[in-house]
Amino acid sequence: MYTNVAYLHNSRADIADDSRSLIVSSCGYYRILTRTEFRTDRPFGRRDYQLLYIAKGKGYFSFGGKLRTLGEGSMILYRPDEPQHYYYHAADRTEVYWVHFTGRDAGSLLKYYALPDTDNVFTAGTSPDLQWLYRQMIQELQLCRQNYEELLALILRHLFIVVNRCLTEGSRDTGMLDEIERATHYFNENYRRQINIEEYAAARHMSVCWFIRSFRQTVKQTPMQYILSLRMANAQSLLESTQYNITEVAAAVGYDDPLYFSRLFRRHTGFSPTKYRERANGSNQP
Predict the structure, then answer these.
(1) 57: left (phi > 0), else alpha (psi -120 to 50), else beta?
(2) 176 and 268 fall within a common domain
(3) What value, to the nearest 5°, has the Cα angle with vertex 218 and ends 217 and 220?
(4) 240 contact partners, CB below 8 Å, separation of at least 6
(5) Are both 202 and 153 inside the same structural domain?
(6) Which one in 61, 148, 161, 210 has a CA-CA gap of 20 to 30 Å to 77?
(7) Digit-coded pLDDT (tens) for 188-220
(8) Is the Cβ–Cβ distance between 51 and 65 less than 8 Å?
(9) Could you write out the DSSP letters of every residue in 43-102?
(10) Which residues pair with 167 in a beta bridge?
């Protein structure tokens, strides 16, 4: 079993603290590999809230004496003093994230972001954003950098927002939304490279027509329009904040031909790169 866990002030205490709006008290990740069964039994629950997310595999949760098998993409919310009985099997290769939190506004924030209050279980899908946010909370608890407790509360609210989006967009194809999220992550990381949409779709085992149509439906742009907007936004930032010449700016955002880049930039912004830089520098003068 692999674990990566972290606790506020290195304390495993079960706390209910209303001194602040929202407090993350612990967060962790389990990958069940070797233990035949990993079980949690808390007949009287805990004093805080717990939000679990099954990223892979399965979990077995008991509510009111009834056992429910929950698969990847499931989230489980335990409120204060609710009994907690659940377990995982190594054979399922389960990966699960969890966070404990408290605070005077914890309950009202859950309502504000429309997390279900009539059931402990809901489906958020296999979003990479959710896993990243859990990992960020674990890291902040481990490193304890400046103002980390405040940042933890902000990351948890970010998590609530992502969950809310998953729930409110639930009538749409969850698989499609997952693919669009993966694509936008990939494009953001690789916009400087030459991206072939047909090759990307084929690598993800998608029809290129389906992918482009689904991307446009969700993002309101085609994939190439989205990549172009990333390149132009970053080119604008480089023109404003660096002394790179136009050839260097073009190369930095994925264009070998500075003349072609300049034409695209003018079409996108209404200004040549040189004129844009002059206007940006002029607006920054005292």
Answers:
(1) left
(2) yes
(3) 70
(4) 277, 280, 281, 284
(5) no
(6) 148
(7) 999 999 999 999 999 999 999 999 999 998 888
(8) no
(9) TT--SSEEEEEEEESEEEEEETTEEEEEETTEEEEE-TT--EEEEEEGGGT-EEEEEEEE
(10) none
Could you tell me if 83 and 38 are in contact, meaning their C-beta atoms sit under 8 angstroms apart? no
Residue 36 pLDDT class (50, 70, 90 cuts): confident
The closest alpha carbon to 261, from 251, 270, 271, belongs to: 251
Domain around 182: 172-286
pLDDT for residue 171 is more than 60: no
Question: Residue 212's domain is classified under what CATH number?
Answer: 1.10.10.60
Enter the DSSP assignment of 220: S
pLDDT (0 to 100) of residue 172: 55
71-80 pLDDT, tens digit each:
999 999 999 9
Helix boundaries (H) for 97-127: 106-112
Domain containing 86 — which CATH number?
2.60.120.280
With tokens 């499609």, the residue in question is 176
Whole-prediction pTM: 0.66
Instruction: Report which secondary-structure segment, H or E, holds 196.
Output: none
Residue 261 to residue 269: CA distance in whole angstroms: 12
Same domain, 210 and 127: no
Size of the chain, expressed as the number of residues it contains: 286
- My answer on whether 181 and 267 are in the same domain is yes
